[in-house]
Amino acid sequence: MEVLIIGCGASGAACAIRLKQNNPDIGVTVLEHLDEPCKKIHATGNGRCNITNKNADGFEVTKSFFESLGLLLRESGEGRMYPYSNQAASVVSVMLSACEKLGVKIVTDCVTRKAEKIDNQFNVFTNKGVFSSDVLVLATGGKAQPALGSDGSGYALAQAFGHSVTELSPALVQLKSSTKNCRALKGVRAKCKVKIETNGEIIAEDSGELLFTEYGISGIVTMDLSGKISDEKLKNGTERSVAIIDFVPEISEEELLEHYNKFGDFEGVLPHKLCKVLLRQSDGDSAKMAQYIKHWRLIVTGTKGYDYAQITKGGVPNSELKDGNESALCSDLYIVGELTDNQFRCGGFNLDYAFNSGIAAADRITM
To answer: Is the dihedral of CA 313, 318, 324, 327 positive or negative?
Structure first.
């Protein structure tokens, strides 16, 4: 059996390794359009690679897989798991070493132009010739961080085999705002509760750390909510979105007023820069200040885009996939990782899915 994998990122590399672990006699070739494989892994977790999370559905599978390669993990708060070395390079090193030892063929600088299936054979046309196989795995990634290889080309490949693709947008990304106060608050961090209001309706809310920037807001809570923002709909005017920030979720408006009446300010509650902005915005009215602290409205004009996004929202619907991420429309075709419509919050959950989907595909191919 010959298996072709397009894309040598997290899901593609994991799939290739698992295939050879399961059956050393299978021929496995991975086509990577960049000059080196696994480039995006190097950048994850600020260079530390948040491989998985103890609370992820596939945690045990991911942990066991990497232990089989000799990579040990360590926890770093909130269930986040990193390589014991705290270096993403270690993850790439053990995966590429495993590929070499197991006989996985990786072809770099290989740009896929077209893929087709004739009878029971897949043909993939590239700048380095035509590759043929019995099984084809699409593991190209989405559109997030194109400089690291995710250029969105995999969606057209999936569509060529009859698949649909849901609306795509940047996710786990910073949000932009036209509010001038963001620039004044640049660098201020706060543990907040944030709601996203779109066209007058609250569509999502979450809690966590928020960071003000010159262009808008960042921080984990922002990233986790960013998937609810559609750049396209904001741009064409069909949606208007606002972030509603509660800077003190544990304190009521009444308690804030009591505090102000006792101390004359909120300096002991909030960062000084934020106090200055709120004081100016409320004209010194303590009741208004308390209201703003609990319900500060920030106009959202869009996201920072795919260049800054960690993942892509949307993809091939799960309804078009069977167990092991096999296509329900084309036998022996598998679609894994970010190409599928599966998105999770920050903390290692998305990378865990990438590894797990590749492993699941390999297990199904060799069952």
So the answer is: negative
| Crossing angle of helices 88-102 and 10-22, rounded to 10° | 40
Q: How far apart are CA 4 and CA 106, in angstroms?
A: 10
Instruction: Provide CB contacts within 8 A for 327, sequence distance 6+.
Output: 161, 163, 320, 321, 333, 334, 335
Give the contacts of 133 (CB within 8 A, at least 6 positions apart): 2, 3, 4, 27, 29, 121, 122, 124
Angle among Cα 137, 367, 126 to the nearest 5 degrees reads 20
Short-list 134, 130, 132, CA closest to 120: 134
Please list, in sequence order, all residues whose beta carbon lies within 8 angstroms of the beta carbon of residue 28, skipping any fewer than 6 positions away: 3, 5, 16, 19, 20, 103, 104, 105
Write the CB contacts of 285 (distance below 8 Å, at least 6 apart in sequence). Answer: none
Q: Walk along the chain (367 residues) and give the pLDDT tens digit of each residue.
A: 999 999 999 999 999 999 999 999 999 999 999 999 999 998 887 889 999 999 999 999 999 999 999 999 999 888 999 999 999 999 999 999 999 999 999 999 999 999 999 999 999 999 999 999 999 999 999 999 988 888 899 999 999 999 999 999 999 999 999 999 999 999 999 999 999 999 999 999 999 999 999 999 999 999 999 999 999 999 999 999 999 999 999 999 999 999 999 999 999 999 999 999 999 999 989 999 999 999 999 999 999 999 999 999 999 999 999 999 999 999 999 999 999 999 999 999 999 999 999 999 999 999 9
Task: Please name the amino acid found at residue 348.
Answer: G
β-strand 2-6 against 52-53: which pairing, if any?
unpaired
